[in-house]
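Hi C.,

You asked whether I'd gotten around to modeling the 234-residue construct. I have! Everything is below, sequence then structure, no commentary in between.
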Amino acid sequence: MRVLIVDDEPLARMRLAALVGQCEGAEVVGQAGDGEAALTAIGELSPDVLLLDINMPGLDGTALARRLGNRARPQVVFCTAYENHAVTAFELGAVDYLLKPVRLDRLREALARAGRRREAAPKQAAGYLHARQRGEEVRIALDEVIALQAEDKYVAVLHGGGELLIEESLRQLEEAYPDQLIRLHRSCLVPQSRLVGLKTLGDGRTLARLAGSELQPEVSRRNLPAVRRLLRMG
């Protein structure tokens, strides 16, 4: 079970990592000191479980859990020094709510519960795009895609390993994967799971922030309301 620790206190992260190391079948794949860094890490590392603090500067733990929404997401275990957020935590679908200092037996119990919930969750059908490269067919999973951009008669698939061209149109892709892709403007689609925020420029333009990438495509005024709704749902 892949675990991402999110806490603004380095000593708290260190202690949780040591405890996870004593939990059979679990490994720490990354750490983040705030909610924004966690969103990027989730996109890059695909953890199964978040050990998530609540009181953090900027994007706090409950706001981060809301941002994840119902999209493909890790199981959330809140780890906090405060008792008064428990109701909100479980309303957000948390697996467990652990009070600091976290005990090893409670952490093991929470991870076991997260594992059972993960196994019981319905599996989303994986989406794949097909392209040809050097005369051979290449298949790339949608969750590896950073962006899809129209270029003349083709669509460029931007991913971590480079770029591929496919013959399907953006409209065809949008209709084939309505729950996995979102349109930013007439020439660009991105996976919903990549979208982590917006950036407004001084000239009024809005850019999309994508997990695991420095690419910041522009969002058109026409598509901006839908993008904002998706971020609020998350």
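If it helps when you're writing up: The CA atoms of residues 79 and 98 lie 5 Å apart.

Thanks,
B.
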